[in-house]
C-alpha cells in the first residue's frame, strides 16, 4: 500500500499538462548517443555540442502486454505489480499495449488500477481497437455494421461514430438471412434503434463499412451476415450486384477487425482460440463462397498502426516528464507472433522483449520471431532495462 501511494504521488498524468517540467539531469537520464552529462556546461547544449545532439535528454519507454505478461487468467504474475510501480516511481513512460478489447479504454484502465492497486488512467491503455478512432473521418457519418461483444457500439460511439447497427439488429430486420435460429432478443436500451429509419438497412440506406470489435458471441450468425454484407453492395437482402462464384466484382464494403490473435493464454493449460481465429475462419468461408479473397484491415498487434499510436502516447508522456525524446521503446510480451513480431517490424526506437510467462515458455529464444531481449518475467525485464 505504501508503495502504491508513492507511485500515485510520483506519477504525473500527461493529459492536460500545460507546463513542462525542467529537464534536470539525474541517473535515469542520458544524452543522445548514450552519453551522460559531465557538467552543467554540457547539459546546456550550446555550440557544436547542440549540433551533435549533446545536451538533449532522452529516456526509454515501455509498452506492456497484459494477458500472459502482467497477469494470467486474472491472477497477477509474481513481480508484475512491482514492475509497473517501478516505472511509475521513476517517471518512465509506459502504456499497456494489449490485443484485448470489447470495452472502453477507461474501463480497462479501471480494471488494471483495481488489480494492481495503482493509479492507471485511460491514457495508459491501448486496446486492439483503439486506433480505429482514426477511421471516423471516413466512416463516422455512414451506417456501419458492428460485430463483436455486447459493448461494441459503445466503443465505436466513444470514437465518434454516429450510425451503427449490430448484427443482432440486422438479423431482427431480416430474420431469413440466418434461418437456423430465431433472432436474439434485443436489449431494452437498443429497442428504439429498431424503429429508427436512419438505422434500417435498405438499398437506399446501405451499410458503408463493417467493424469487428473482437469476436462475436454467435460465430455462425455473424459469419453468414458478414459474408452477405461484404459480397453485396451494403444491403444483404438484395441479390442484384452481389458477388458470386467467379464474380469479377470487387468487394465494395470495407471490413475492419480488431485483435488478430490466433491464440491467447488464460486459466487453461493450452492456449485458447483468440478473436483472430474468427477472422481467419470468415476469410476462408468468404473465399470459398465468393471465389475471391476477403479484404480486411486488421487493428492490433502486430499491425503497425497500433505501434504508431502507442508511440505517440509514449512520446507525449516523455515530453510531460521533461525529456526530449525516446531512445528506446521496449515492447514486452509473451506472444512471439503478436508482441515480438510487432515490435521487430515497428522499426526504431522499438526493441522487442519476450517473457516466458504465457504463450512462450521455452528455453532460449523463439526460432521464428526472436526477441531482442528475453527474460523470465516482466519484473526481470524492468529491472534490467528501466533507467
Automatic annotation (TrEMBL):
Cited Gene3D superfamilies: HAD superfamily/HAD-like
Cellular component GO terms, alphabetical: mitochondrion
Domain of life: Eukaryota
GO biological process: glycerophospholipid biosynthetic process
InterPro entries linked to this entry: CDP-alcohol_PTase-I, HAD-like_sf, HAD-SF_hydro_IIA, HAD-SF_hydro_IIA_CECR5, HAD_sf
NCBIfam families: CECR5, HAD-SF-IIA
Name this protein carries in UniProt: Uncharacterized protein
Native organism: Bicosoecida sp. CB-2014
Biological classification of the source: Eukaryota, Sar, Stramenopiles, Bigyra, Opalozoa
